[in-house]
Amino acid sequence: RMKGYACLLLAGTFTCAIAQAQQKELTDDQYFKSNFKAITQALPTVTRWIDNSHFLLLRNGKTMWVDAATGTEREATDAEKKSPEAKFKPVAYAKGKDLFIKGDGGEIQLTHDEELEVNPTMSPDSNYVAYTKKNDLYSIDLRTKKETRLTSDGSDVILNGYASWVYMEEILGRASQYRAFWWSPDSKQLAFFRSDDSEVPVFTITDANTQHGYVEKVRYPKVGDKNPEVKVGIVSPDGGNPVWCDFNPKDDQYFGLPYWKPDASALLVQWMNRKQNQLRIWSVNPQNGSKTIFYSEDQPTWISLDDEGERMHFLNNKTGLILQSDASGWNHLYYYDLNGKLINPITTGTFTVTELNYVDEKNKVVYFTARKENTAHKDLYRVNLNGKKLQRLTFGDYHHYYVNLSPDASYYVSSYSNAATPNQLAIGNNKGKLIKVIGDSKTAEFDQWKLARTELVRVKSDDGKFDLPMKITWPVNMDKTKRYPVLISIYGGPNAGTVMDNWALSGSQQWYAKEGLIQVAMDHRASGHFGKEGVSYMFHNLGFWEMKDYTTLVNWLIANGNADPKKICITGFSYGGYMSCYALTYGADVFTHGMAGGSVVDWTLYDSHYTERYMGTPADNADGYKSSSVLTHADKYKGMLQIVHGVIDENVHMQNSIQLISKLQDAKKNFEFMLYPGGRHGWGGAKGQHFDNLKTQFIYKHLLEKPVPDGLLK
To answer: What is the rounded distance in angstroms from the CA atom of residue 180 to the CA atom of residue 161?
Structure first.
């Protein structure tokens, strides 16, 4: 998955500002060090809720006691500051090549061998720790310090409890750190994946940093390739033969994150076909591996597997669960019993539920956040478990980007802003009443400073179906008789929009506004603003709709925003790199300049699970693969494209940029190219600074057409 690498030009450059006629000009310290203490200040921070109606707030170095019902605050007493005594739970961790645990008796070393222990994970009852070693699953009984090897066939291609690359990257998520085992709630069983990578093609990555070169080999399934064969096992932490769930590992299939039922009576296994348009959740008997269907979903395009354990939320009272699905065209909440029978939808309509925040089981009320009133805003809502009496609880024309609920959800503290309003903090209650604003990031001097104006605009798509969002930071002292270069920051992937109506302020943003750049972030119809209905436009057709909508937005800027049609620059990384390359080829009649990092240039070169979800395979979508490829349109290239790649990028392989370069060379096209040795899918340190400088130089050379000012380069 490439999302998460929307590396933009400079941090915060494209996300907002305000504008009024101010007196004071910004200083070099503000531009180059983003030192805005005279303009904005940090909000106070909620440290913890004391009870259902009182919380502690850290304000100006002091801990304040706050009554949520009134907003009254005073300095907290020492007793109030003291956290309640919590039962100490031992923590397991790897240090060097060995495993340690920190408990009541201090640090204890658990292993003493040369092999590396990976992903130590405590059992819920704190009596065991499970981990992998040399691709086998192990446990240690902390009461006896006995180590037990739970599997015995681990090898370079047989992975027990350790995920294959494509499973880590696309299914379980990077946060898993390759962990593919899960404790049962009663600590009596471990579910795990056994992956057989023996038929997954090997991709070889090389670098040039030693005399004989560096070589790295990754089992990486590209489009149409053989995927790892996965078995789902269940084993006791005390050992014995694993129970294998009743699936045929030879089937072309995927397994998603499994869920244990709260009483550990069954393992709910998410199964999906290779085309990813059928989801089956099977209830597996841990004693013998037999399975019965628990939940079934089919969609005409695709279904996304969750990697954060958010699809199902079990109620504590053991009466049922809340399941999330976007099968209706919008992500919503559904109430099911523990046998998988639908009781009722909880939310419905043309809006997206973003998070299930809390369930008040006693009063049968569900609290959740959603993008409803404005797709560029998140708000907090409540609704009865039976789907009735939906109510918005947050307030105003703001993006409530973080909501902190009291333990019983009687009150909440919201952090919120919009493009013209710096961050604020307020208390509200579960009846929809705003109680008090308790924090404002504006300083007393805020209105005295000259800041560039940022606004969020909506532009109707060409077919009239969507109001496309675009956030624009306008040049300072804009002259309506002049044309200005445009710098567009995008990511562009399915359901991966970047435009939210939030406040941000950075030195680079303000500097480029002073220099005369129109800085823009824009989202297309499939960015997530318009639900799964909008995202589904990308099915078997990556690139086309993004470019169509981006072109509509650029044409609006030219017609209404004094944009210079000869200087339309687009920049992004990963999928954003793909879009930048595609814009300078397929979209070259509109986009004149681009900066593309870590780019996919042809979807046959990316991994099976991500790509086939949207594109199918070349066998069933040959035209889609051809039209979506940057290489197909290389002969249309004009303008100037900066191509950048990390040499050992194991996610989007450097071969992508190399193949594009070869095409452009054969067509005798001019471009800029930079490699970063040792760089993966992103890089930092001195090379990161070099990369920032490279983009700065590109902007000055091609868009501003003047030398880079002294001191601007890092």
So the answer is: 4
